[in-house]
Sequence to fold (733 residues):
Amino acid sequence: MVVTPPQTGWTRAESPVAGLRRRGLTLTQVLAQSVAAVAPSAAMVTLPGIVIAEVGSAAIACFAVAAAIVFLVGYCLSHFARRMASASGLYSYTAKGLGPVAAFTAGWALMIGYLGIALASVLASALYFTSLIELVGLAAAGSTVVLSATIPVLAGLAALLMVRGIKLSARVALGLEVTSIALILAALAILKINQAEGITAPPASTGRLTIDAVGLGVVLAVTSFVGFESAGTLGVEAKRPLVSIARAMRWLPLVLGVLYLVAVTAQVATLAAAPLDIGRSPTPVADLTRLRGDTALSAVIDIGVAASFFACIIGSGNAFVRIVFSMGREGIFPTVLGRTHRRYATPHIATVALLTLLVFVPLIMVVAHTAPRTSLVALLTLSAFGYLTSYTLVCIATPTFLWRIGELTARPLLAGIVASLTMGTIIYAAFAATLSADSSVPIAFLLTMVTGWLLLGAIWLNDRSRLRNIGVYDETLTRDVYIGVTPYGNDMAETDGR
Amino acid sequence: MTALEVLEKVATSGTGVTAKEIAHSLGLPPATTYRLLNILVAEGYLVRLADLTGFALGQRMGRLLGPTRPPTVCHAAHQLVTQLRENIRFAICLVCYYPPTTVQVVDADPDHALQADDTWVRHLHASAVGKLLLSEQGDWRDIFPERHLVAITAHTITSPADMDSQVVKFRERGVAHQLGELRSTTACYAVPVRSVSGALVGALAISGPLERQEALAELVQPMRDCADQLGPLLA
Fold:
């Protein structure tokens, strides 16, 4: 069989993403990183409450539908993950399917997603820690000083862990997540039992179950899964990237789906009976326990959620800096951001850049006296738009990528079409819902995207060859190819004839 | 079983074969082929090339085929070979021998693409590097049975007597060659790389079109000089 060689040799001698610690993370650690970026225990006590407030007991169905949709996205992603080990996940995946412009759009949107979640996590973990400090009586309630002091400490600690090595941050994240999920599940169980014993009001039927409300419920439920794809940024660092990352992407939506269904089922009865403003609170479950005067349980929930949010700073932060690092390597961002620490093999410059944002943005929000709930919801909504945009693009990219490499089959084609249409609809619904309520967040998102495109345009005008670098990943290197079998190939005569 | 067939197909088709071509030539359903390929790549038996379309054998195949020592050369040795390549238009590569009969490329010519294929390892009697190894033995039959003298091209040596005389000649001259015996259009010369104690540890080989064999032969002396310097570095 005659094989046409590509124009530019088969392989490179050095990986374009060299510098990260190669092949160290186990499947558990890859999962831990993804779970940390999702922050499921924080989501378990906040999002179900909000969805229940919208649709009542139909929240269970909303979460089930959301799990199915996210599973479909994960299925699409796994087709990339099984074929390429990347340090920037969906960004490089989209590049291989749709080219540089779509890839940049997806990458930029995903960065908004990770950054938004990381910022929200700094703020939220600081809020929960402060609430914990207040609970034990060390500070007066609503103290801005304590909150402002907590923010740089938490952000700095997270950044330190991120720089000290991916393995360490994965381990810490795993420990924190396991603890917090266990705490929250226990707290929910206790709450449920207490509720059953001292039941005073019948579970309120909201009685206003509209298509719009259910749609919004599904959208909100989908946002509780975002971050599951962050395993895709560990392609270089995972031990068996083509196996473990693809698995993480396929399993996580299912595992998270089960967790959320448990949490939402436990809360449907409890919260539906509670005053409506509890469901609207940023910390509904904690408030509920506080309302009942159950200080110990409240503290347990606060610890659990604070730990989960702190792990989420690390999880989303790690994913964020790896995209920045990849863009630094491509020359899309200043190349200094593409440097790695000599000893810890992490993108330390990109992490320092992230740390600056993580400290100052929440501090400004606190100092500006924005209500914590408003800041949190704004950041989370902004990041949700980012995630959903990149999911839509990568789902479109799935069949085109497989077609390009000549490996398209019926199932991924179907999955790609269904998933991208569903994600498109969800973005539209999310946009419509937020626009009608408060247009500032969607506008802020659009402005950020436009800023990104302007940057891309500037690069295009300046040196368009750099756009061709978009989508760097951990390629097969010359030394990975087994050539011990023969040095004198069929193409020898042609090569020498030139 | 099918996985092994896929593996074999990549080995025989050469670097860069695509999933579609493999599915087609094996008559397998595409989805099955792609799944097997992905598993073999994930396990390191195969690699997906940088264009994400082509496949090649992965380093893990080396473990299956024998040597456990990774094919690496020190920087100084690599520098020497690179220097030699600078003014030569032919393909120069450095190989190492692993007892009893394994030959592994440790420094392939970056300007001349190699093709994965197994003719070389199996047919020591047809390659210059193989014949150099045979001529090093007291009796070449110890490591290479007579029945393995099969014809690969019209010029391949198939008679044991011819092999006897060639081996003696190569041993005396300290250089082995093959002239259109492995592929009808290429010629190759190989000079030994010896450790300080004189043991054969590797070979430096130069190959090019058969019609340029005189030009190739003239380059044997510079090759020897380089090989002498390489010896202490490889042992």
Remarks:
- Chain B has a mean pLDDT of 84.
- The longest helix of chain B spans residues 220-234.
- Residues 145 and 160 of chain B are 10 Å apart (CA to CA).
